[in-house]
Amino acid sequence: MDYPTGIRPQGRGLRIRIYRKGKVAYSETLAGDLSPRHLKAAIKRRNELEAKFKLGIPLEDQTVWIFKDAAQDWLNTLDAKYSTLTSYRNILKRYWLPDLGPLPISSITTKTVKQMLAAFDLSPKTKKNLLIPLRAVFDHMEINPNPVTPIRIKAKQKEAVERYTPQERDALLALLQGPELAYFSLMFCGLRSGEVLGLRWSDWDGETMLVERQITRRRLVNSTKTSYRRRVFIPSWVRPSLNLESRFSASYIFLNQYGDHHKDTDYFNDAWRAAHKRARIRYRIPYTCRHTRAAELLSANIPPAAAAKQMGHSVEMFLRVYSEWIEDYATVNNFDTDYLPTNSGANPSV
Length: 350
Description:
The chain has helices at residues 36-55, 67-77, 82-100, 110-119, 124-140, 166-173, 178-187, 193-197, 266-279, 287-299, 304-311, 315-326; strands at 7-10, 13-20, 23-30, 208-211, 214-216, 219-221, 230-233. By secondary structure, the chain is mainly alpha-helical. The chain folds into 3 domains: 7-55, no CATH class; 67-140, Orthogonal Bundle (DNA polymerase, domain 1), CATH 1.10.150; 166-326, Intergrase catalytic core (hpI Integrase, Chain A), CATH 1.10.443.10. The strands form 3 sheets. Strands 1-2-3 form a 3-stranded antiparallel sheet, with helices on one face. The protein has a two-stranded antiparallel ribbon with strand order 4-7. Strands 5-6 form a two-stranded antiparallel sheet. Strand 2 (13-20) and strand 3 (23-30) form a beta hairpin. The radius of gyration is 26 Å and the shape is elongated. The model is unreliable at 331-337 and 345-350 (pLDDT under 50).
């Protein structure tokens, strides 16, 4: 439905706003439904308010939105994944609300935001992420011009992507057993940590794992990071590690002491750190296992589209992240040769 200027849905009602010089001068919400009848009443009410405003008659219940209330109003109407919502809420609470919270939102300028950003000792990428919810709050309140729009953050050269050598991988896995061995073997198949925790035995067909859920922020989410399910090929050397007691439960592959899925990766990360220490290998975060799988796929000359699908990337993302390795692995193959399902139609050219 097309709504007239200054009238927009708000929850189960209609929000009315009066603007002056691109800023919100007055706001109120009419409770009710979104029916044509209610819309007609909202239009009538807005016309009355406009007339009063032009004649200089005080508008009853006039609202001056402070940033804190505007941010909460935006969060209340945001349709996003739980993890995304939590991330935005944390960013606002930690970085923007302490200083901007009590200010009228219409008084916040580009200069103010730039000064705050300059005071944050953060990477350019993190600063860009901080601006996402801030920009959205101003858009939600229909502040025009949006003070965040002119801000540009100079990109920093991307750090080299870490990965393990085959020898390091084998040495680390040799120090693990049981669920820890299975967990990190699957990580070396290119799965994200939350995806591994969300795996059920019904996802395993003997050759591939169906990845369609994840554990994020201690919650089970029935979708992946990209909202696309995929089947990930499990190499033959990984499969023996999946001979776990949990297979008799017909539930999650990785069970905690209470017989339920793990809520976070702490248990496995502790084992990973200990394995590095015992093997005297420089520590790298578990996500490096995923990068290592990308290197394997490049080493086997797997077509980018097939490799990206295994990793849960778009082809563009896969090439952008791992392009620095393409030349390194153009003619060298140091890994074993089972990479994709036999019916995938994309076999290694080795």
